[in-house]
Design goal:
83% of the residues lie in helices and 0% in strands. By secondary structure, it is mainly alpha-helical. It is globular and about 65 Å long.
C-alpha cells in the first residue's frame, strides 16, 4: 500500500546518503581512536583535544545534515531521478514528509552516536585520571554546585531539543519553499540553483526581522535561567513553527500543482 511505498522512499533516501554518512563515520571513528589512545596512555592534554574535536564534529554534522537535506531536494528537482521520486503514487506531502523524516532519523542517529561516545569518553577520562569515582557523580556534583538537579537539567535539555528541531526543520522547509518557487518560475533554467539560494537568504532575513519585531513575553535579565529565556521567546518559537508548517504545505502544493519535472 501507500505506507510501503513511503517506507521504500525512506530506504531510498538512506541508501543515497550512505557514502556521505560513511565519511562522517570514519571521521568520528578516527577522533574516537585518538581519544582512546590518548586516555589509555594518560596524555590528558590530547584527551581534552580529542573531546573538543568530537564536540566540533557534532556541530559539523549538524551543518552536514542541514545542507545535504536541502541539496538532495534540489537535485531531485533538477535530475531525472527526481521524476521517479516525485511521480510515486503518493501525495507530494508524503514525498516531502519522507525526506524530512529521513533527515530527522539521520540526524538522530548521528546525535545518539556522538552523545553516547562523549558520555563514555568522559566517564573513561575521569576514571583514568582518578579525578572522581564516576562520571555521573562528577556531573551531579557540578550541577548541585550550580543549584541544579540532574532531572531539572534533563528537562531543560528536552526543551532545548524541541526548540532546536523546530528551528532546524523551519530552515530546511524554508529552503525547500525557495527551491520550489524557483523551480516553478524558472523551470529548467540553469541559474535557478543560485536564485534559490538568494531567495532563501531573503526569506530568512525577512523572517529574522519579523521575529525581532515581535515582543517577548518577558524581559529575562543576564542571570535568567534557560526556562525563563524559553518562556520569553514563546512568540518567536510559535512563529518559527507556523513558518515551518506553511513552508512544508507551500512546497508540497507547488510540487504537486506547478512544478514540471
Amino acid at each position: 500500500g501507500r505506507y510501503s511505498i513511503m517506507l521504500k522512499m525512506l530506504k531510498y533516501e538512506f541508501r543515497r546518503g550512505i557514502f556521505p554518512l560513511l565519511i562522517v563515520g570514519i571521521v568520528i571513528a578516527a577522533i574516537e581512536l585518538y581519544f582512546l589512545i590518548s586516555t589509555l596512555t594518560e596524555h590528558a592534554d590530547h584527551s581534552i583535544i580529542a573531546v573538543s574535536l568530537l564536540i566540533l564534529a557534532a556541530f559539523c554534522c549538524y551543518l552536514f545534515v542541514l545542507i545535504y537535506g536541502i541539496i538532495s531536494y534540489s537535485q531531485d528537482l533538477k535530475n531525472k531521478s527526481g521524476y521517479l521520486v516525485f511521480m510515486a503514487p503518493i501525495s507530494s506531502y508524503k514525498v516531502i514528509g519522507a525526506k524530512l523524516l529521513s533527515i530527522l532519523l539521520t540526524g538522530a542517529i548521528i546525535v545518539a552516536v556522538i552523545f553516547g561516545l562523549l558520555t563514555l569518553d568522559l566517564s573513561l577520562a575521569y576514571s583514568t585520571y582518578d579525578s572522581i569515582d564516576t562520571f555521573y557523580d562528577f556531573l551531579s556534583n557540578i550541577l548541585e554546585m550550580g543549584g541544579y538537579s540532574l532531572g531539572g537539567v534533563i528537562l531543560r535539555l528536552l526543551a532545548f531539543i524541541l526548540v532546536f528541531l523546530i528551528q532546524f526543520f523551519m530552515t530546511i522547509t524554508l529552503a525547500y519553499l525557495a527551491v520550489s518557487v524557483c523551480s516553478t518560475i524558472l523551470q529548467t533554467k540553469k541559474i535557478k540553483g543560485f536564485i534559490s539560494f538568494v531567495l532563501f537568504i531573503v526569506f530568512y532575513v525577512i523572517l529574522s526581522v519579523i521575529a525581532s519585531k515581535i515582543p517577548h513575553l518577558s524581559n529575562p535579565g543576564p542571570n535568567a535561567t534557560f526556562m525563563e529565556a524559553m518562556y520569553a521567546m514563546i512568540p518567536q518559537i510559535a512563529l518559527y513553527f507556523v513558518v515551518m508548517v506553511a513552508s512544508y504545505i507551500g512546497s508540497s502544493v507547488l510540487l504537486e500543482k506547478k512544478i514540471s519535472l
